[in-house]
Write a structure and sequence with these properties.
The protein is mainly α. The protein has one domain (10-244). It contains 12 helices and no strands. Helix 1 (10-23) packs across helix 2 (25-46) and helix 2 (25-46) packs across helix 11. The radius of gyration is 19 Å and the shape is globular.
């Protein structure tokens, strides 16, 4: 296939991200709410007071419970993001979204995605230790490694290399997209915090809504960037994507 010469299109990525969520609100907002939002809200409610937080470290049983809760939340977060990525890839490939299949694909990829996340986190953390800029560059290079792993069935290192190749020449535009997402997330969080300022329960509810929205945007946005990079660099059309994501 002939190589494309265009870079990533910010407006198309934004439109695809919003479009995918608006076409499938139950999948994206509902899953984000059930898998991560509600468990996170429950933990915040239980451990919300300073006394409760201090008490959570008062016994070995409480510490063990906290560790178990952390790993459960980590598992749910990875499954959520992977499921939303699979759903986004299918939607943008003009395929019907089968929620059960999306979740099954996400769970099958859990261990590779966990390894990818650890490698990703360690690499970027080391980069930030080297005066921040290398960490930012690595983040932009590897931003679509998870969709690559899911869609193209690659290993950890191969997914990172493929992501670096796809993002080559588009890092500036991707950086602008990340800034846009960050601003939107900050606005949502600020509105949530202001609405729940005077009541702890209300605060948790609005925080839940904020986490639900940002979780959906993150999953759909990352996959949309991947699809647009492939379209720009390789001229991949919807029919080809449908074969890749089958």
């Amino acid at each position: 296939m002939a190589q494309g010469s265009r870079k990533i299109d910010i407006s198309r990525v934004v439109n695809n991200t919003v479009g995918v969520i608006s076409r499938n609100p139950v999948v994206f907002l509902g899953l984000s709410l059930l898998i991560v939002g509600l468990p996170n809200a429950a933990m915040e409610y239980i451990q919300g007071s300073p006394a409760a937080i201090a008490g959570s470290f008062s016994s070995s049983a409480a510490i063990l419970t906290g560790l178990i809760g952390f790993f459960v939340f980590l598992f749910l977060s990875i499954v959520l993001q992977a499921t939303l990525i699979v759903a986004t890839l299918n939607d943008l490939a003009n395929k019907e979204i089968n929620l059960g299949d999306c979740i099954n694909q996400a769970i099958r990829k859990f261990l590779p995605l966990l390894g990818l996340g650890l490698f990703f986190g360690l690499g970027i953390s080391f980069g930030f230790m080297l005066f921040i800029v290398p960490g930012v560059i690595l983040f932009l290079m590897w931003i679509v490694a998870a969709p690559v792993m899911i869609a193209e069935n690659r290993g950890i290192i191969a997914s990172l290399k493929r992501s670096a190749a796809l993002t080559s020449g588009s890092k500036g535009m991707i950086f602008l997209l990340v800034i846009i997402f960050f601003i939107v997330a900050m606005i949502i969080s600020a509105i949530s915090a202001s609405l729940g300022f005077f009541n702890a329960t209300t605060s948790i509810i609005f925080a839940l809504i904020a986490n639900m929205i940002t979780g959906a945007l993150q999953g759909a946005g990352t996959a949309s960037i991947y699809v647009d990079l492939r379209t720009a660099k390789e001229g991949t059309d919807s029919s080809t994507l449908a074969e890749v994501f089958a």
